[in-house]
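Hi R.,

As promised on Friday, here is the backbone we talked about, encoded as structure tokens. Could you run it through your design pipeline when you get a chance and send me back a sequence?
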């Protein structure tokens, strides 16, 4: 690419249509402290002599002139003579972010202007803008004269190169920058909404809030800064450049405080609060300067802020390396992201303070930074989900083991009830029967004393009642019929016994196609029926109770106890409730479903359903 030498740029070998736009870099004639119009160069008698030649893009600050370094503020004129090819083309010049006001002439015609030139801050109106100036090439030299005044910024000159090309080419560059910018902003907006939703769902996880604020500040900084061609103007046309400048310079330091809080919310042990406080004090002081001081003071403070940012970047990188070495979740992604972010911001600092560059990697650095932050958050969430899954698996194992132990306890309890029932039946009941028989024999003898005969008869009656109660107690603990497959007989006996004791009509209806039924949970179904009948007799005030046990074609073993009493909701207002909990516990232990509700035509209906596996049943010889 050709480069200007001593104020002349030869473009005769450069085909703009074929080779694309060209940056007008190199040596421009430099006229210090003069705002010369094109007419001044038409004089053949005493044309102005340049103060020297200056490489653009560049700044006149600290340039040597007559043995003295020039200040950053002042005014100057730049001149460049273009030698284009013989083609007759309509060209355009692209000028962006020239500090702080300028006018551009091409062959004596004013083609671009931004702000109002002046020789002091009182007479100058600075304005940073993007301009596409049209220039006609008719195969003749093009004389460019650029007047620049700077009394508002720390350094005067051109930070970005002036581009020459076809209008469509330069428009395409502008459109491409804004397209990438909108892609970046749209991606960040999605990140903001997503992580804000996460924060409102879980307020304790403050890292999602800081990540959202970080993305928002990145948007504010990028859309109001030079690398995006001030994308904000696409949505808010003609926005005041001074406001854009303040938003841009405030967003970046505030972002460092938010980023620190983001890292500290993830790794509170590693990132110190003391450094956070120092960072906050620095940023508060800078924001106050931006809001209250002139541009000269602001950009001087920005210089020192940039130097302190280099130290802060080093601290971030060191701490993230420590977090990686300590195996913190997501620290590797955050380190890679901050390396990208540091490279982008340091290149901007280098370009604005030390040297100049033609391109910016800020967008790609920001994209990498946000992407790696999102990956770090995703890794932390994934690890949290994995931990929850492992914990759930352990809890499920514990619950299975607890269920198994509960079944063992219930089985042991039933076995103990069976033993006590047999002991009562075979021991105490037999002794009481024997005593009753002897008393009955005594009553048949003639006893001289009439009172003794009456006492013996009374004792015989009491023994008869005691035998009945002992048998009832034995059957309640473990019905003698409750052997494998004989649950129907036990339920029928339960109906007869309770009906006889309570005076309530109780009927049993059984419909088990498999005989005998070998389901291992029949004992628990009997206990549930026993408790349901007892509750109905005690609370429902029924005149009829029906017990049914059946097995349908879907191999669902279903126990139903129904009464015609006052109903479940009415009875539930009475004291008690232990029996219902016991039924629910037994049903849960055997994996059955239990429902207790009011029947449609009155009364209460208790239904317990249990899946009956095929290998737990026995069929007849014919299959």
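Update: got your reply. Pasting your designed sequence below so it's all in one thread:
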């Amino acid at each position: 690419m050709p480069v200007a030498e001593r104020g002349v740029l030869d473009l005769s070998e450069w085909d703009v249509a074929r080779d694309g736009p060209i940056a007008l870099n190199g040596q421009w004639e430099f006229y210090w402290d003069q705002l010369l119009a094109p007419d001044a160069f038409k004089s053949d008698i005493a044309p102005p002599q340049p103060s020297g030649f200056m490489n653009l893009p560049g700044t006149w600050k600290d340039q040597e002139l007559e043995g003295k370094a020039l200040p950053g503020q002042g005014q100057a004129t730049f001149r460049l003579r273009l030698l284009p090819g013989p083609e007759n083309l309509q060209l355009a010049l692209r000028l962006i972010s020239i500090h702080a006001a300028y006018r551009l002439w091409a062959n004596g015609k004013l083609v671009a202007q931004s702000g109002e030139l002046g020789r002091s801050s009182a007479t100058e109106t600075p304005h940073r803008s993007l301009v596409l100036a049209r220039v006609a090439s008719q195969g003749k030299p093009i004389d460019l004269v650029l007047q620049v005044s700077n009394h508002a910024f720390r350094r005067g000159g051109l930070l970005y190169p002036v581009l020459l090309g076809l209008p469509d080419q330069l428009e395409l560059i502008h459109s491409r920058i804004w397209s990438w910018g909108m892609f970046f902003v749209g991606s960040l907006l999605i990140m903001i909404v997503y992580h804000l939703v996460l924060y409102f769902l879980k307020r304790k996880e403050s890292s999602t809030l800081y990540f959202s604020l970080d993305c928002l500040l990145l948007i504010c900084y990028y859309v109001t800064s030079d690398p995006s061609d001030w994308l904000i103007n696409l949505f808010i046309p003609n926005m005041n450049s001074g406001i854009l400048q303040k938003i841009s310079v405030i967003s970046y330091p505030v972002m460092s405080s938010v980023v620190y809080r983001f890292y500290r919310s993830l790794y509170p042990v590693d990132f110190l609060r003391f450094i956070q406080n120092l960072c906050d004090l620095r940023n508060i002081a800078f924001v106050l300067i931006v809001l209250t001081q002139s541009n000269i003071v602001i950009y001087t403070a920005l210089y020192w802020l940039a130097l302190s940012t280099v130290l802060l970047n080093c601290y971030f990188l060191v701490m993230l390396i420590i977090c990686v070495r300590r195996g913190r979740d997501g620290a590797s992604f955050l380190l890679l992201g901050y390396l990208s972010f540091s490279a982008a911001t340091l290149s901007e600092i280098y370009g604005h303070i030390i040297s100049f560059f033609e391109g910016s990697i800020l967008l790609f650095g920001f994209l990498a930074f946000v992407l790696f932050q999102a990956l770090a958050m995703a890794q932390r969430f994934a690890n949290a989900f994995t931990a929850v899954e492992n914990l759930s698996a352990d809890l499920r194992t514990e619950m299975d083991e607890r269920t198994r132990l509960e079944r063992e306890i219930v089985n042991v309890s039933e076995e103990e009830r069976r033993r006590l029932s047999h002991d009562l039946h075979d021991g105490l009941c037999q002794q009481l029967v024997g005593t009753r028989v002897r008393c009955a024999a005594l009553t048949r003898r003639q006893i001289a004393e009439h009172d003794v005969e009456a006492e013996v008869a009374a004792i015989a009656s009491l023994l008869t009642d005691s035998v009945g109660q002992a048998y009832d107690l034995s059957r309640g603990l473990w019905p003698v019929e409750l052997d494998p497959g004989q649950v129907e007989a036990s339920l029928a006996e339960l109906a007869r016994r309770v009906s006889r004791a309570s005076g309530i009509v109780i009927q049993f209806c059984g419909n088990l196609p498999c005989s005998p039924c070998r389901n291992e949970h029949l004992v628990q179904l009997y206990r549930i029926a026993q408790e349901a009948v007892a509750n109905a007799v005690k609370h429902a005030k029924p005149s009829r109770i029906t017990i049914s046990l059946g097995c349908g074609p879907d191999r669902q073993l279903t126990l139903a106890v129904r009464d015609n009493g006052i109903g479940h909701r009415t009875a539930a207002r009475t004291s008690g409730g232990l029996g219902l909990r016991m039924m629910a516990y037994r049903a849960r232990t055997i994996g059955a479903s239990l429902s207790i509700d009011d029947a449609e035509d009155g009364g209460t209906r208790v239904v317990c359903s249990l899946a009956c596996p095929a290998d737990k049943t026995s069929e007849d010889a014919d299959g």
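One thing I noticed while checking it: The longest helix spans residues 362-444.

Thanks again,
M.
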